[in-house]
Amino acid sequence: MEYAQGKTGRVFVVRLGDGDRLPDSVEAFATEQNIRRAVCWLLGGAGGGALVVGPKDASVLPPEVMLQPIDGAHEMAAVGTIFPDSRGRPKLHMHAALGREDRTRTGCVRPGVDLWLVGELVILELLDVAMSRKKDAASGLELLAED
To answer: How would DSSP label each residue in 20-74?
Structure first.
């Protein structure tokens, strides 16, 4: 286990619009506002794109991801973190639960999820947290690690 202690900074409430894309729109906002590290929550709708819904075989590293397309408007609730990548750019890692009728899917928004109608995003900035995303040789993933 690795950890870092910090404190909270600014709070942003952002209304995203129809067609805004995750993670791109959140990472662009974080860049504009100089948000380096944060936790974020999102409520709204999803209307297109795809989710990572798991590795094809959990015993194989680096994992081969399984993608599932998003067809039609879905209700969405999501939570994520923003930490700088190896180049110092803010990178969102967000998982979302999407529901439509009696079906719910959960996965990572990294491949791109298009918002449907509206997304209400709350970002809580984290200060004095010495962690960033670094590529892990074994998994091939960018994992949180101490700076």
So the answer is: -EETHHHHHHHHHTT--SEEEEEEEEEEEEEEEEEES-TTSSSPPEEEEE--S-E
Quote the pTM value: 0.94
Rounded distance between C-alpha atoms, residue 40 and residue 118, angstroms? 16
Give the separation between CA 143 and CA 81, rounded to whole angstroms: 12
CA distance 70 to 73: 8
CATH of 10-127, one of 1.10.10.10, 3.90.1140.10, 3.30.70.270, 3.30.1330.80: 3.30.1330.80
With bands split at pLDDT 50, 70 and 90, how would you rate the model's confidence at 54? very high
Structural domain spans, the chain: 10-127
